[in-house]
Design goal:
alpha+beta, Alpha-Beta Plaits, ten-stranded mixed β-sheet, 6 helices, 10 strands, about 25% helix, globular
Length: about 250
């Protein structure tokens, strides 16, 4: 049987989603717990490879294995073995044609910037910048340059081609909201290059600090070349929000 699982995790102390030789990838922890419960080696397949320190509200993975009890019982069994920073949100039985990665049609991430010392309860989940004021209107103007189907080479990490050979991605929406010192950037697209979301956020922040103009952003995007004007925002503020399927 094939099982589709939605999980959330606080990525602070993990080496990212993907299996790590050190044993500290989120995938390591999940596979170890499932293998113990099902009494057989289990390999899971995730939708998105979040980096070290990145969080998730709605990461999706699937695995094949025999389980004759309720899904709630499987959730409880997993929670008894998993690190408390990992939570199983939902488990459903799916067709063997389903694949967590290849069946996905779009992904949504949210990034949080805090323009002050962040409250302790939020500190691990934001980029605490502590330098106001900021030109939020210019950030909004620049953000719309990213919407659409285009080449995002300039906004990927140096070794992005090792991660994803196709730099053409489509951004369906990019929304900025500000509530007091907190700014949230929600971006939904067909897929993302290595560190692309964090590079976009770092660029928008540079616009807000008047280090770049919205026109500069468009020029960099069209150049298809990475520049030192693009700063990658810290991992702590990024969370995988949701994976969409047909």
């Amino acid at each position: 049987m094939r099982w589709k699982c939605i999980c959330s995790y606080k990525g602070t102390d993990f080496g990212g989603w993907q299996f790590q030789p050190t044993g500290n990838g989120v995938q390591n922890h999940l596979e170890s717990a499932l293998s113990s419960i099902l009494d057989q080696p289990i390999r899971i397949h995730g939708c998105s490879r979040t980096d070290a320190g990145v969080h998730a509200h709605g990461q999706c993975f699937h695995f094949d294995g025999d389980w004759s009890h309720s899904t709630n019982k499987l959730k409880r069994a997993l929670h008894s073995l998993l690190d408390k920073a990992i939570r199983i949100e939902k488990i459903t039985s799916v067709s063997e044609n389903f694949h967590a990665r290849f069946s996905a049609i779009k992904k949504s991430y949210v990034y949080t910037i805090y323009l002050d010392r962040a409250p302790p309860i939020e500190e691990a989940f934001v980029w605490s910048c502590r330098d106001t004021p900021i030109d939020f209107q210019s950030m909004q103007m620049a953000s719309q340059h990213f919407v659409g189907k285009q080449d995002f080479t300039a906004f990927s990490a140096v070794h992005a081609k090792d991660k994803d050979p196709n730099p053409i991605k489509e951004i369906y929406s990019l929304e900025l909201k500000q509530h007091g010192p907190k700014i949230t950037v929600t971006i939904t697209g067909s897929g993302f290059l290595y560190k692309m979301v964090r590079s976009i956020v770092g660029t928008l922040y540079a616009v807000g600090r008047n280090r770049l103009t919205p026109e500069d952003v468009l020029h960099i995007l069209h150049s298809k070349k990475r520049t030192n004007k693009i700063v990658t925002a810290p991992a702590s503020g990024l969370s995988l929000k949701k994976i969409f399927y047909k």
